[in-house]
Amino acid sequence: MRTYQIAVIPGDGIGVDVTKAAWQVVEAAAAAGSFGIEATEFPWSCDFYLETGAMMPPDGIDTLRDFDAILLGAVGWPAKVPDSVSLHGLLLPIRKAFTQYANVRPHRLLKGVEGPLRATAFDILCIRENTEGEYAGAGGRVHQGQMEEVAVETSIFTRRGVERILRFAFEQASRRSGRLASATKSNAQKYSMVFWDEVTAAMAEEYPSVEVTSYHIDALAARMVMAPESLDVVVASNLFGDILTDLGAAIQGGLGYAASANLNPADDAPSMFEPVHGSAPDIAGLGVANPIAAIWSAAMMLENLGELQAAEAIMGAIEATTAQGIGVSPGADTTDAITQAILRALPSS
Ligand code: NAD
Ligand code: IPM
Ligand code: MN
């Protein structure tokens, strides 16, 4: 029997609660299936930073490298540690070090969940570039605190980086409806986004079965609200994809439902699975965080590991739960009540 080794990083705030919930569901799905799964938990978080001076130990990346996958809750507690320190000390280095260049974020309404839109029949798969672009980290500040102060932060778009994310998106589109929307802003950003569009157009030649449309990011944001059913696979640069996927979360009923996979498609390092949401300091400690985003992310992890039946069983249990009206109204059910309902809905073997 195969036993997977998973690095679990609950992180901060509600990250701790939703990761605990997700792990309970993963263990139950594994017990019902024919594989084993073991967690090694790492306490890397803002509290860890306050104790040790770093978000993870210096060999943290090397430690994670040997795992089959990483399950993460959320990172950040701005009242204790600046976000620019905590995220650059843990989450963002993992995405880059393990070349998790494809951040995959599904946006659709679960049964029983009412989103804020009239449209209900949408199923959008956002593919976000996850290692470069606006998040490349190239920049600096000079004359800090002086009138002459300058801050520069340069986006970096490499041919390698742009080609691989677009290829990933074209592949997804060819497996789904054959429709791909590419987020651009080439009317204003005449170097990086013109380059992005050129690579998109060149790759379209290789995928004649995919119909690709380039939308300026502003118009695409509006389209996601006004006509989400007209979209299928959406591909975007790092920052555009970040913003678009909180919007995606909103139209699917809220951040409590938005799952994500940070994939290393070459599979030469672990991929990481985490909800789109953050540590939610406003509700942390109240026991009301919706664990569905984290549990759905865990299902994406099992799917990526090749445990398709277990992944489908979890998705079925999530929807059986929401279809009963559990976990569908913000704050109405506790994290634990939603988790228990999902556990009850899981087939027991
Ligand atoms: P957030 O996603 O934590 O919260 C935004 C809003 O959504 C809040 O009102 C929150 O209560 C609500 N919300 C989020 N998840 C929910 C859930 N599961 N159930 C119910 N409601 C939920 O975003 P923020 O407030 O901008 O960020 C808080 C901290 O988290 C910051 O430090 C930020 O940098 C960090 N952050 C981390 C990640 C990550 O680790 N992947 C993602 C986003 C934000
Ligand atoms: C996300 C988050 C992160 C991002 C932050 C916390 C750095 O918002 O995963 O969407 O911008 O990638
Ligand atoms: Mn985000």
How do the strands and helices of this protein lay out in sequence?
Blueprint: E1 3-11, H1 14-32, E2 36-41, H2 46-52, H3 60-65, E3 69-74, H4 83-89, H5 91-97, E4 102-108, E5 123-129, E6 133-142, E7 150-156, H6 159-175, E8 179-184, H7 192-206, E9 211-216, H8 217-226, E10 233-236, H9 238-251, E11 259-263, E12 271-275, H10 292-305, H11 308-323, H12 335-345
Parallel strand pairs: 1-2, 1-3, 3-12, 5-10, 8-9, 8-10
Antiparallel strand pairs: 4-5, 4-11, 6-7, 11-12
Count structural domains. Answer: 2
What is the CATH T-level topology of the largest domain?
A: Isopropylmalate Dehydrogenase
Shape: globular
Number of helices: 12
Secondary-structure-based class equals alpha/beta
Uncertain regions spanning at least 5 consecutive residues = none
Distance between the termini: 15 Å
What value does the Rg take, in angstroms? 20 Å
Strand order of the largest sheet: 2-1-3-12-11-4-5-10-8-9
